Amino acid sequence: MVIRGKNKKILIILTILILIFSAGCGKKKKKEAVDEPEIKAKDYLTGIDEDTLIMNSDGGIIEIACDDYSGESFDYSQLNDEIQKEIDGFNESKGSDKVSLLQYSESNGKVKAAIRYLNIEAYNEFNGTDYKLQMYEPSECNNIVLTEEKKKAESMASSEELAEAGIDPDDENSALSGVKSDAVKAVMKDASGNETAADDINDSSLMMLVTDMQVVFDAGNGEVRYVNHHASISGRDSAVTDGTGKAVIVFTLGLN
Known about the structure:
The protein is of the alpha+beta class. It has helices spanning 5-26, 79-94, 120-127, 138-157, 160-164, 175-183; strands spanning 52-55, 61-68, 99-107, 110-117, 132-135, 187-189, 195-197, 206-211, 216-218, 223-227, 231-235, 238-241, 247-252.
């Protein structure tokens, strides 16, 4: 059939439109792929070389455990897996995930692990320790500090130096009683070394950590305010305990 006249013109127009549309589709610009920025996992281990407890505002605890096996015939190649197995076994026994391994590193026999605990109770259960973490109680803090000060005084009074000085520990009339009475003061020290009676600290927003373990304590975004003589303030948010008696660290709980 031969197409003539008006119908032929319509067919030509349709053909042109189809060609234009096809050409436009063929040249459709492809969407360029955009590289998404890589989100790096938080590094908990760099710059930390001592056992450290870091406080979270939600009551959780992050432990940085540091061990040096350099020079020892210890196979630490599978230690990462062993730690994870122990954590998995603990969580299974408790019926919930109370402990998690955040980070692990090993370099030249120096092993570090960042472990998160749901709370101080989970930390104590997992590690067999007896840390106490609670809101600050003036009377309780006073009793703890007073007891530790008495132990310190008794240690001084029973030393060889006093024996050589001719002081009889069993003689209540000797200089021993004076040593004890002068040394027994329930005081806390701030970062400047100023002393404050433990039972005069009445800020209801404060918390306190009590432990006889040697450890670095990091208050996170909080601030360490006071310590007794078994600890020292090493920075605005940190303190170090000596591990020779019950250390009391009084601090604020910052927001993460």
